[in-house]
């Protein structure tokens, strides 16, 4: 029998103001303005089903159909005669997206559509704090309401199975238990603001490579234990009003119209009463989508909204009897239920707040709790401002702003504090901060993004890449690819590849530019259609060509490549952007502190595209290695939402992981670097040493056709434990400026039976000399099982704050579901009799306490 998990009640840290957003008189809600809002909302919710049936009974077929598909880019139609307003949706998962035009993706160019830019959900996951999830959701919901949005398209809960996945930064890490525990308070907080959450993407969206066509084929146990628990929790405990379907296919059909995913599980077993809506431009058809539970279709690429699959084609099927009217009525009931639940026809609906000081400080609080101190040998950190006179800052992320990139998660904030600005705010004029741009001196570096005028739709400078079938460069194989810079490496060692890359380049200064072409294979370069270079070589060679360019003009660069090697286009341009190597290394030796802000950006972490490898882009590894040789105390501070390789890790004394930090990132980073905030974040993902160590790559299960999920339930850290692979940094790892001692583990019973719960307690003592917070993690092992199970499964966590010398108690509860696996024979959860081991630790690889108990059913 399935058992509900216990969830901790979350107290909201921020409360929204109560407003009176004037709308038409709501049905059956004739209350005076003096009625307390809580009582009013209770009455509103109590009358939802009655009002749904009343409205449904009055609707024509055309009116019903109008609710099941979009009538603009982000809305579905109003039915004015019944007081039903347009239902407005908005991206995104960590801030309400800027306003776009009603019928296009172009910006509407509003002057007042800025929103609080919150840290992405990877940072929330790294906090391991349910209160941070609630705080994140509360700000998001309040700001969505103030912008008159009815549905906010988030939070995202797909798991980080593959480090290359372009959207890992949007989600809650690699573990199903952690994601499930954090999504519930996030959803509840969003919806407390009279806004519907839309948990996404249901289900198995674990790669962007051919995200619409790739066919996900996990076995049933893997599906249930790994990829569905966060959605299940969002439905059963979070009561999410909407769920967004995934782009990918599931066993041959789009996930949005999968009978098994939608009708059998979501709306069947889980009893979901909300709305399933599509992402934009998914691969569905009318009959399967209608019969298998899709409720709203958004964004199909056709000329007219009437041509959507759930528009006129659905009406014709209803009229012909191929699709029963009851199927349509179920969809309309669900849509009306959401609209009435969030008060769309209620004049007393909450009005929300936006861009308040409290919201901005919430962004700072969340990232402060999510920053992870990966390494801190010789106590390099925290830095002491009083001992510093000269600080050297380097790295591509020192001044980069990340808010308006990444795809549908982009946000337009009032401001964004860069890491450099954060240091300047912290240190003021008393400390000299020198900024240098370092570049790998070996080989040819790609043309810097500073010169690139072309933007990918996700907001970052890009080269458009077209793949061809042969050397005639006329027969297109695929043309929806983009790459971050002017460097391409063939992925096929047995057959030549044929690609054409293009972008617009705007020189920063006029004058002679020395083009450099590092090549193995055949390549040609055209500028504004005129060929300026054409070379072919069997061994790598560098070719040069001088050209005059005007900084008042924009030039179209088109680089064509054929071969099984690689090509990089770079140049020496007037007004050099980068500091010579000898100069920045000399400065590093002389500086009182060196901070390198590197990692990824949204040129790498972004929707629609996966990374090609796990390396730091643009030669950062070489620069970091040389800096560490020049000054071993260099602090390496990395941004990014996915794992990267760190070949210099053994030489580095101090490494910090800051994710993408939201609008207050720089201030929060400086707080941690200088000890005003003691870091308490823990990694919600495993950081592998190499890409080859990860399951999808090791098992050859990453391609554009199908994902078989060959590792089964052994996702992330479970795979590394099973294979006895030591990662770079393990799941759950994160250091502090103080130390914690674990002791006195106790279980409420040594034997359990049936659906009894087990209470686990342990004492945690701060043995250091500064206050700090520790994330205590509980892992469970089924010592003898009839099916392969992970050696450790996360089944509890608690974050505790302690003063120096203080001892506190953490309490975590295990229940029958926590002990269970999905039994394919009974098609149900099964806790087998036998011995279980409880392990308490600071990470999956740092277990401090353990104790066993016996279970019988």
From TrEMBL:
Keywords: Glycosidase, Hydrolase, Signal
Record domain Fibronectin type III-like: where: 774-844
BP GO terms, sorted: carbohydrate metabolic process
SMART domains in alphabetical order: Fn3_like
Signal peptide: 1-26
Family, similarity comment: Belongs to the glycosyl hydrolase 3 family.
Name of the protein in its database record: Beta-D-glucoside glucohydrolase
GO molecular function, one term: beta-glucosidase activity
UniProt keyword annotation of Signal present: yes
């Amino acid at each position: 029998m399935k058992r509900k998990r216990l969830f901790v009640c979350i107290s909201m840290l921020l409360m929204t103001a109560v407003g009176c957003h004037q709308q038409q008189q709501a049905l059956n809600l004739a209350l005076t303005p003096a009625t307390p809002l809580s009582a009013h909302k209770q009455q509103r919710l109590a009358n939802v089903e009655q009002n749904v049936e009343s409205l449904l009974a009055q609707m024509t077929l055309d009116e019903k159909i109008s609710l099941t598909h979009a009538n603009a880019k982000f809305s579905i139609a109003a039915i004015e005669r019944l007081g039903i307003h347009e239902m407005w949706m908005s991206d995104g998962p960590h801030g309400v997206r800027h306003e776009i035009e009603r019928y296009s993706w172009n910006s509407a160019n509003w002057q007042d559509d800025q929103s609080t830019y919150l840290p992405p959900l990877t940072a929330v996951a790294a906090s391991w704090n349910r209160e941070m999830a609630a705080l994140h959701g509360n700000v998001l919901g309040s700001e969505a309401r103030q912008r008159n949005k009815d549905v906010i398209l988030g939070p995202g809960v797909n798991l980080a199975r593959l480090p290359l996945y372009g959207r890992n930064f949007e989600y809650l890490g690699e573990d199903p238990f952690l994601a499930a525990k954090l999504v519930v308070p996030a959803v509840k907080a969003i919806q407390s603001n009279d806004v519907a959450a839309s948990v996404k993407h249901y289900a198995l969206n674990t790669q962007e490579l051919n995200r619409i066509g790739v066919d996900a084929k996990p076995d049933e146990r893997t599906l249930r234990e790994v990829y569905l628990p966060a959605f299940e929790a969002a439905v059963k405990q979070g009561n999410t009003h909407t769920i967004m379907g995934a782009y990918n296919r599931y066993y041959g059909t789009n996930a949005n119209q999968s009978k098994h995913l939608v009708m059998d599980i979501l709306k069947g077993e889980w009893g979901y009463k909300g709305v399933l809506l599509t992402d934009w431009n998914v691969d569905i058809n009318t009959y399967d989508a209608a019969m298998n539970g899709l409720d709203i279709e958004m964004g199909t690429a056709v000329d007219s909204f009437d041509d959507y699959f759930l528009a006129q084609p659905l009406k014709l099927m209803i009229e012909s009897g191929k699709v029963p009217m009851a199927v349509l009525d179920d969809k309309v009931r669900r849509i009306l239920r959401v609209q009435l639940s969030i008060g769309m026809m209620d004049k007393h609906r909450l009005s929300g707040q936006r861009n308040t000081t409290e919201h901005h400080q919430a962004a700072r609080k969340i990232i402060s709790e999510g920053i992870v101190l990966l390494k801190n040998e010789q106590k390099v950190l925290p830095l002491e401002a009083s001992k510093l006179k000269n600080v050297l800052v380097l790295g591509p992320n020192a001044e980069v702003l990340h808010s308006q990139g990444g795809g549908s998660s982009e946000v337009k904030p009032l401001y964004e504090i860069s890491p450099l600005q954060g240091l300047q705010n912290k240190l003021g004029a008393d400390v000299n901060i020198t900024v240098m741009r370092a570049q790998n001196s070996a080989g040819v570096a790609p043309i810097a993004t500073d010169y690139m005028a072309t933007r990918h739709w996700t907001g970052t400078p890009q080269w458009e890449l077209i793949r061809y079938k042969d050397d005639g460069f006329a027969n297109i194989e695929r043309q929806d690819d983009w790459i971050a810079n002017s460097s391409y490496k063939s992925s096929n060692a047995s057959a030549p590849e044929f690609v054409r890359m293009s972008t617009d380049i705007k020189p920063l200064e006029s004058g002679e530019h020395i083009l450099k072409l590092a090549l193995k294979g055949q390549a040609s370069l055209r500028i504004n259609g005129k060929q300026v270079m054409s070379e072919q070589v069997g061994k790598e060679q560098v070719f040069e060509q001088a050209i005059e360019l005007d900084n008042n003009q924009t030039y179209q660069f088109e680089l064509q490549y054929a071969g099984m090697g690689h090509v990089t286009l770079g140049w020496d341009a007037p007004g050099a952007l980068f500091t010579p190597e000898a100069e920045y290394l000399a400065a590093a030796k002389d500086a009182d502190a060196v901070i390198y802000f590197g990692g990824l950006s949204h040129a790498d972490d972004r929707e629609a595209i996966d990374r090609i490898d796990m390396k730091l882009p643009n030669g950062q590894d070489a620069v970091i290695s040389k800096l560490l040789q020049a000054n071993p105390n260099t602090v390496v501070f990395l941004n990014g939402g996915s794992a990267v390789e760190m070949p210099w890790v053994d030489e580095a004394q101090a490494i910090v992981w800051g994710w993408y930090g939201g609008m207050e990132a720089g201030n929060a980073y400086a707080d941690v670097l200088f000890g005003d905030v003691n870091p308490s974040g823990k990694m919600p993902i495993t950081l592998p040493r190499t890409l080859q160590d990860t399951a999808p790559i090791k098992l050859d299960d990453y391609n554009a056709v199908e994902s078989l999920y060959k590792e089964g339930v052994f996702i992330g850290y479970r795979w590394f434990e099973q294979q006895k692979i030591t990662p770079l940094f393990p799941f759950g790892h994160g250091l502090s400026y103080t130390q914690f001692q674990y002791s006195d583990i106790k279980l409420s019973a040594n034997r359990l039976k049936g659906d009894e719960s087990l209470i686990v307690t342990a004492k945690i003592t701060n043995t250091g000399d500064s206050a700090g917070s520790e994330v205590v993690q509980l892992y469970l092992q089924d010592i003898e099982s009839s099916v392969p199970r992970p050696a450790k499964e996360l089944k509890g966590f608690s974050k505790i704050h302690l003063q120096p010398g203080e001892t506190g108690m953490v309490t975590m509860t295990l229940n029958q579901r926590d002990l269970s696996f999905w039994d394919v024979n009974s098609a149900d959860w099964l806790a087998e009799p036998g011995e279980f081991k409880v392990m308490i630790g600071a990470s999956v690889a740092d277990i401090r306490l353990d104790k066993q108990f016996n279970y019988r059913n």
